[in-house]
Amino acid sequence: MEASLLSGGFTAPCNFPTQQNQHSLLPSLSFVGFPSRSFFALLENAAKNGALRVKGSKKGIQAVLGQRQLDEEDEEQENDSYANALTCVMKFGGSSVASAERIKEIAQLILSFPEENPIIVLSAMGKTTNNLLLAGEKAVGCGVSNASEIKELSFIKELHHRTVDELGVDRSVISEHLEELEQLLKGIAMMKELTLRTRDYLVSFGECMSTRIFAAYLNKIGVKARQYDAFDIGFITTDDFTNADILEATYPAVAKRLHDDWIADPAIPVVTGFLGKGWKSCAVTTLGRGGSDLSATTIGKALGLREIQVWKDVDGVLTCDPSIYPSAKPVPVLTFDEAAELAYFGAQVLHPQSMRPAREGDIPVRVKNSYNPKAPGTLITKTRDMTEAVLTSIVLKRNVTMLDIVSTRMLGQVGFLAKVFSIFEDLGISVDVVATSEVSLSLTLDPAKLWSRDLIQQELDNVEEELEKIARVKLLQHRSIISLIGNVQRSSLILEKAFHVLRTHDINVQMISQGASKVNISLIVNDSEAERCIEALHQTFFESGKVTEENGSLADDLCDVLVN
Ligand SMILES: Nc1ncnc2c1ncn2[C@@H]1O[C@H](COP(=O)(O)OP(=O)(O)O)[C@@H](O)[C@H]1O
Ligand SMILES: N[C@@H](CC(=O)OP(=O)(O)O)C(=O)O
Q1: Do 285 and 422 belong together in one domain?
Q2: Residue 368 forms part of a structural domain
Q3: What is a biological process (GO) this protein takes part in (predicted)?
Q4: What CATH number is attached to the domain comprising 97?
Q5: Which of 75, 144, 179, 518 has its CA 20 to 30 A from that of 32?
Q6: How are beta strands 284-286 and 275-278 bridged, if at all?
Q7: Which CATH number goes with the domain that contains 462?
Q8: Residue 311: CB within 6 Å of ligand 2?
Q9: Which of 156, 204, 292, 293 to mutate to test the pocket of ligand 2 (most atoms within 8 A of CB)?
Q10: Does residue 338 come out as left (phi exceeding 0), alpha (psi in the -120 to 50 range) or beta?
């Protein structure tokens, strides 16, 4: 979006971030003439965070901000020196830091890589984020005098006190946060409302406390560490509370801060995952559930590190969610595209946006098991040898709503699809899977419009009402999307096998979609059939030996199913 700031007759047009161009935030800011005072304040703020580099036409600005112009050469040199200092990111999720015992194990695990100078990114301890959210919801209706008694607040206090005591760390590292948390819950109880902005502030206590405890413990055992709150070191995001997106200005800011501190006084950085700072509001934001993965890959790209390690409670990315199908097996190698697709279609193991910085920076991501560090895990890179690859992973997304939309106008009507999609855009509802013909359209709606919230009935009613102005609509609930993530070159083989299995098990596929990338084939079935379907597909693709064109040509089955 081109915006103009008017100041005493001078015009300073500049590029402001929008959803579409947010990645061209401050570093590509351009202006002519003399900007207004408020505009200077904005620039100054960005410059303080190290987020601003002045390039090209910069009349007046350099003198005022004293900013050094970084040309391409400077930038390359900085990246080189970053690479020589800190070597990798190690992100540990909630299950990896769930107790004092686990924290001790993680500390030993980090020390078992003496050749690394890692940056540690942590999530909140165990289920703390869920408990904070529940506490916030209870506070809305419980009255100020009862806010201190909220069960989840007691869990959080007890867990964090017990942990610091068992680690032999002083309670003072978290006492202020716990007091402030209680005050915040009282405030929510008084206001009787929990805005998205307050919700983000509320959940930030989880990561703020886990990182303080961990850094204090490392220091206690003689390993020099320094705690950082992401929102204070340049994680600049959109102001979409509960689902904020990292802005481009983050990379230089974060790199500069972590690198400069390391050079001045080397200490292992321990950074809060999941959190950022809204660029307009300057308030704490969160990156969506599971967002610490994205924090880790952002740091990896910012510093141009050798590797990003994401430590989980499973042996890497598996052929499907082990909580749905326990015989799932680790996938040794994946491409960024496969991993992104898998995450987007609901595999909880990785945050949906987390592959983006890794792909852009071409930094390998290794997914490892903190309970079983010897397991090789999964290596995610730009490319891999696909000669043997058929299916990589099966992902299940439950409780999806499907819509069948048939145009009430004539065949060949111009703009039908555009009208349908503009309705979803206006209502702010994202669409997952789409299949179209000339006059009809089937699609599925994301069950979590925002990661934190289910699509509610009222919103569905609004969708139906709007669509009925231009089409006949059938709303089908309780559907599942089964996504087959696999080799682009073998999609026909995957389809052939999949349909044979489904036909054998008498499972009726209600919609099918294959994206342009062809990495992902999506099948829609009834929720009640989904698990049976996963089991059958998994057995065929991963438990019955190598899948080849030769072991059964079943094109006829596919044709039968499609025709019926
Ligand atoms: N394809 C998959 N591979 C591995 N784990 C998966 C997959 N799909 C879903 N999961 C779930 O993701 C969980 C790990 O992710 P998450 O809970 O975010 O870890 P952490 O909190 O440690 O970062 C696993 O316990 C598993 O149940
Ligand atoms: N604590 C946040 C962020 C996060 O990344 O958690 P985990 O790594 O445990 O999924 C959440 O629960 O969403």
Answers
A1: no
A2: no
A3: threonine biosynthetic process
A4: 3.40.1160.10
A5: 75
A6: antiparallel
A7: 3.30.2130.10
A8: no
A9: 292
A10: alpha
pLDDT of 242 > 50? The answer is yes
20 within some domain? no
Extract the runs of DSSP E, i.e. beta strands, from 408-547.
Answer: 431-436, 440-445, 448-450, 453-454, 471-486, 511-514, 520-526
CA of 317 to the centre of ligand 1 (A): 8
355 alpha carbon to ligand 2 midpoint, in Å?
A: 16
Closest listed residue to residue 54, CA positions, set 39, 43, 38, 41:
43
- 327 C-alpha to ligand 1 centroid (Å): 14
Q: Which ligand is nearest to the CA of 451?
A: 2
Measuring from each residue's beta carbon to the nearest atom of ligand 1, which residues come in under 6 Å? Answer: 93-96, 123, 290, 312-314, 317-318, 320-323, 347-349, 393
Q: Which helix (H) or strand (E) holds 225?
A: strand 225-228
Q: Is the CB of 490 under 6 A from ligand 2?
A: no
Strand order in the sheet with 471-486: 431-436, 440-445, 391-407, 471-486, 520-526, 511-514
Distance 243 CA to ligand 2 centre (A): 13
Q: Ligand 1 centre and the CA of 458: distance in Å?
A: 31
pTM of the model: 0.81
89 and 296 in contact (C-beta within 8 Å)?
yes
pLDDT tens digits, one per residue of 58-97: 333 332 333 334 444 455 555 555 555 899 999 999 999 9
Question: Do 406 and 271 sit in the same domain of this protein?
Answer: no
> What is the average pLDDT score of the chain?
83
Give the count of domains, the chain: 2
Tell me, yes or no, whether 283 and 398 share the same domain. no
pLDDT at 452: 42
- For Cα atoms 444, 449, 455, give the angle at the middle one, nearest 5 degrees: 75
**Structural domain of 283:** 85-305
Is the pLDDT at 451 greater than 60? The verdict is no
- Residue 15 domain-assigned (yes or no): no
Q: Whose alpha carbon is nearest atom 6 of ligand 2?
A: 290
> Quick one: pLDDT at residue 537?
94
Does residue 50 belong to any structural domain of this protein? no
Give the pair of three-digit tokens for residue 460. 């569905």
